[in-house]
Write a structure and sequence with these properties.
alpha+beta, six-stranded mixed sheet, 322 residues, Alpha-Beta Plaits, globular
Length: 322
C-alpha cells in the first residue's frame, strides 16, 4: 500500500561561504529553518526489482540523477529488503529554487520507505545515507531550526525559534548551485576578496553575529516568549548584519531577484534574503496579516508569492506523514 508523505521546504537564514576545501566543497555556515510549503510524495514497494519515478512536472528527472532514486537505492540496501520502488512526486516547490526541494524529496523517500517495509534505520545510519546523497539532506532529518556547518551536511539541532510569518517569492528562474559556487569563486579571485585568513575571519565573524542573533542579545533586547520574542529576534537579525554570500553573484546575473528583495522591504518585511543559491527570495514579517497582504500585492505585480510560516521541529515531524 502506498505511503503518502509531505516533503517540506527550507530557507537559509544567513549563508556564509568560506574557502574551497581539499575535497572540492566549500566550508559553509548557515541556519536552516523548515517552512510549511511542500511537495507530496507517494512511495510503494512492489514485487520485482528496480526503481520507477513518476512526476506531474516534466522537469523532474526520472532516472538515477534524481536524489530520490539515489536515496531509494541506498536505503533498500541498508534496510536489507528487496522489491520494486515506485515513487510518485507531486511538485509544489520550485525546481532549482533554493528551497531544498530535491533534498527534502530524498529524505521523504527514505522515511516513507521505512514505513512501507516496516523497518527503521538507526539515526546515525539515516544521517550517513543522507550526507552521501547530498549536502542539504541531513537537515530534513532534524527539522525546525538547524545549524549547518561543514559543506552543510554537518547539522546540529538548535533551540527552535518561534514560528515566523514569511513571504516566499518564487520567480520562474532556475539557479544552478554548482554554477553559483563557481561564479562566487571567480568573483573572489577577480576582486581579491576573502583569501586565506580573511575567509576564516569572516566565518568567525558570521558565527559570532549568528550566536548573538539566536540569543537575542545583539540589540540588548531580552528574548521573550511568543510574538514579542519573534519580533525581538527579527530586529536582532537586521542589526547583526547576517547575509547570504550568494547574493553577490546571483543578483548581478539575475537583477530581477534583487528587485524582488527590494520589493519585500516596503511591503513590511523586517528581513529579506535569497534562500540558498536562489532563485527563491523570502521576507520575514511581524504578523500573518502583513505577510498575506504582501504576498497578494507582490503576486499582483507579477512576482509569484505565497505567505507561509516556519515550522518548529515538533510541527515538522507531526505533519510529515499524511
Amino acid at each position: 500500500m502506498p505511503v503518502a508523505v509531505r516533503s517540506f521546504a527550507k530557507i537559509n537564514i544567513g549563508l556564509e561561504i568560506g574557502p574551497r576545501r581539499a575535497d572540492g566543497f566549500h566550508a559553509l555556515r548557515t541556519v536552516y529553518e523548515t517552512v510549511a510549503l511542500y511537495d507530496r510524495l507517494r512511495i510503494e514497494v512492489r514485487r520485482g526489482t528496480g526503481i520507477e519515478i513518476r512526476s506531474d512536472d516534466p522537469r523532474v528527472p526520472l532516472d538515477e540523477t534524481n536524489t530520490c532514486w539515489r536515496m531509494a537505492e541506498r536505503a533498500m540496501k541498508a534496510l536489507k529488503v528487496r522489491g520494486r520502488v515506485m515513487i510518485q512526486i507531486e511538485k509544489g516547490l520550485p525546481i532549482q529554487g533554493g528551497l531544498g526541494g530535491a533534498s527534502s524529496n530524498a529524505v521523504a523517500t527514505l522515511l516513507a520507505l521505512e514505513r512501507a517495509v516496516g523497518k527503521q534505520l538507526p539515526p546515525g545510519e539515516r544521517l550517513r545515507l543522507a550526507a552521501e546523497v547530498g549536502s542539504d539532506l541531513p537537515l530534513f532529518l532534524i527539522g525546525g531550526t538547524v545549524l549547518g556547518v561543514g559543506r552543510g551536511e554537518e547539522v546540529y539541532p538548535l533551540e527552535d525559534l518561534p514560528a515566523l510569518d514569511c513571504v516566499i517569492v518564487t520567480p520562474e528562474i532556475g539557479v544552478s548551485t554548482p554554477q553559483a559556487f563557481a561564479d562566487l569563486d571567480a568573483f573572489r579571485e577577480k576582486t581579491g576578496k576573502l583569501t586565506g585568513a580573511a575567509r576564516s575571519d569572516k566565518l568567525s565573524t558570521f558565527s559570532r553575529a549568528m550566536s548573538a542573533w539566536l540569543s537575542g542579545s545583539s540589540t540588548g533586547v531580552p528574548a521573550k516568549g511568543g510574538g514579542d520574542r519573534a519580533e525581538a529576534l527579527l530586529l536582532d537579525l537586521v542589526h547583526a548584519g547576517i547575509e547570504n554570500d550568494f547574493e553577490s553573484v546571483v543578483f548581478p546575473q539575475h537583477p530581477e531577484l534583487r528587485l524582488v528583495k527590494r520589493a519585500l522591504e516596503p511591503e513590511g518585511a523586517v528581513y529579506a534574503s535569497l534562500s540558498g543559491s536562489g532563485s527563491a527570495v523570502y521576507g520575514l514579517f511581524k504578523s500573518r496579516e502583513l505577510a498575506q497582504r504582501a504576498a497578494k500585492h507582490l503576486s499582483a505585480e507579477g512576482m509569484p508569492a505565497v505567505a507561509a510560516r516556519t515550522l518548529t521541529r515538533r510541527e515538522y515531524w507531526k505533519r510529515i506523514f499524511e
